[in-house]
Design brief:
The chain is mainly α. It has 2 domains: 213 residues, no CATH class; 239 residues, no CATH class. Helices cover 82% and strands 0% of the residues. It has 17 helices and no strands. α1 packs antiparallel against α10. It is globular, with a radius of gyration of 23 Å. It starts with a helix and ends in a 10-residue tail after the last helix.
């Protein structure tokens, strides 16, 4: 059974990674053609559409999969009607807010672009949900075809669009092309005729299900994207374009690590939720693994982040070493923050991850304060790192209070991470001479070695079995993309 699930997971995981990879490739192509200033406007449009999409996401496709009667034609038709209504409402909202948003951002040219994005939101509402419905039977092929075809065809024409338009308005045309392909292919692969219907009892269930999801999406958007909103409000278009590129380059691997961590380790913890000693032992192992991953990832980004940007996007998109180091620390802390959330979810405690994201908003408030005070981009990202620390500590303390789980292993990993991050920051952001750089690199390497030894000591003889179990239990990432 586990082997069958792994075989099912592989193509779906490959599809998700493929879509993310194609999205990254599109941004690289556009960045090469447009340059930092236009990419800053491009990122502004992307954030606007993403924010509205998350705020209005009531999750009818997810309830269609989860509900016992989700296979009924009336259920699907009502869900599709709700999707159409959502699309029309978003279209009207974008058209109405186009001028105020453009005035707020001090760029009148944004008005028509934001209004045009209303067409994208409206067209998306006509998506055929049959590809989601058949996931009830663990059949993900239609969804894979829809998503990969849309991503692949859009990537194939993105250079053509950009070379003819030469401005950030290319985002509008690319988005229109992508949503048309997405909707058309969803209808082509469907096995059930497209219908719209309205059943009050079903609509009520969909709204009750989707209301909390929309509220949580707003919090998630603030926790994950709030820093970019602050930079958008306080930086030039060119600096925002550079920051958006660096942020995405560091965030994509972090999100993939977090999703894989959830699919691999959550079932392991859940199986032992009624055996406190085994639960604590497995949690210590997971803390050691993620502590090592977080520190290794952070140091790698510190040392090679700007080099990767130069190779992929061009030297015009490089950020200062200090900004790159703070971004690396922020993403490393996000990896660590998955630990208490996973432990809480394994015991059916969904309050912990929600509280963690709420606490993360403290970093956004601090970032807005320093950003609007003119302290610069480095201070904004540093404030965001502070928010991650507050969220991690608060989540660990809440785990102890609500579940009685001692956070000692989390404190140990956080201490090692902090020490490695400090010396890494001094090495790559503040070292002036070759001697100081070599010295700091040696200290950083020593801390990384201690982290590895802690990992080996904690996992002990069960290290091989833990990794083996993780490989077998890797499942498909079938949730909506959050980037």
């Amino acid at each position: 059974m586990a082997v069958w699930k792994a075989r099912t997971a592989l193509p779906v995981a490959a599809s998700q990674i493929g879509c993310e990879g194609l999205g990254l490739l599109r941004n690289i192509i556009l960045a090469r053609i447009l340059g930092p200033s236009e990419m800053g406007v491009f990122a502004t449009l992307a954030i606007t559409l993403s924010l509205l999409d998350m705020l209005s996401d009531l999750g009818p496709d997810r309830l269609l999969i989860q509900a016992e009667d989700g296979d009924r034609e009336e259920f699907q038709a009502t869900a599709q009607t709700l999707l159409v209504v959502r699309g029309m409402a978003c279209c009207v909202l974008l058209v109405g807010l186009a001028m105020p948003i453009a005035s707020l951002l001090g760029n009148p040219n944004l008005a028509w672009m934001i209004a045009a994005l209303g067409a994208v939101a409206g067209l998306r509402g006509w998506l055929h949900l049959d590809c989601k419905r058949i996931q009830r039977n663990h059949d993900f092929r239609s969804t894979m075809v829809v998503e990969l075809t849309s991503a692949g065809m859009t990537t194939a024409v993105v250079a053509l669009f950009a070379n003819h338009i030469h401005s950030a308005s290319v985002f509008v045309w690319i988005s229109l092309f992508q949503v048309v392909v997405l909707v058309c292919v969803s209808h082509v692969v469907a096995t059930r005729r497209y219908r719209l219907a309205y059943r009050p009892e079903i609509a009520s269930r969909l709204l009750r299900f989707g209301g909390p999801l929309a509220c949580n999406s707003l919090i998630m958007f603030g926790a994950l994207q709030g820093d970019r909103l602050v930079v958008l409000a306080s930086a030039t278009a060119a600096n925002f374009g550079r920051y958006a590129v660096a942020f995405q380059l560091t965030m994509v691997p972090t999100l993939l690590i977090s999703r894989i961590t959830s699919t691999v380790f959550l079932p392991q913890l859940a199986r032992n939720q009624k055996a406190p000693e085994k639960f604590a032992e497995r949690l210590d192992q997971i803390v050691a693994v993620l502590g090592l991953v977080a520190l290794s990832f952070t140091l790698s980004v510190m040392g090679t982040g700007n080099l990767a940007i130069e190779i992929l996007y061009g030297s015009a998109f490089q950020v200062t070493p200090a900004v790159m180091c703070w971004l690396a620390i922020m993403q490393g802390l996000r990896i660590l923050r998955a630990v208490p959330s996973l432990a809480a979810l394994a015991r059916a405690d969904s309050v912990n991850p929600l509280a963690s994201n709420v606490l993360r908003l403290t970093g956004i408030i601090a970032a807005a304060t320093v950003g609007l005070s003119g302290w610069g981009l480095e201070a904004i990202v540093a404030a965001g790192c502070g928010g991650e620390v507050v969220a991690l500590i608060g989540s660990a303390l809440l785990l102890h209070r609500r579940q009685g789980i001692q956070p000692t292993a989390i404190w140990n990993s956080l201490s090692l991470f902090a020490a490695g991050a400090v010396f890494g920051w001094l090495t790559f952001a503040a070292g002036d001479s070759m001697v100081s750089r070599l010295g700091f690199m040696g200290l950083t390497g020593g801390i990384l070695l201690v982290s590895i030894l802690n990992f080996r000591r904690t996992t002990g003889s069960r290290y091989a079995s833990t990794i083996s179990t993780a490989v077998v239990e890797t499942r498909a990432i079938v949730t909506d993309k959050g980037i």
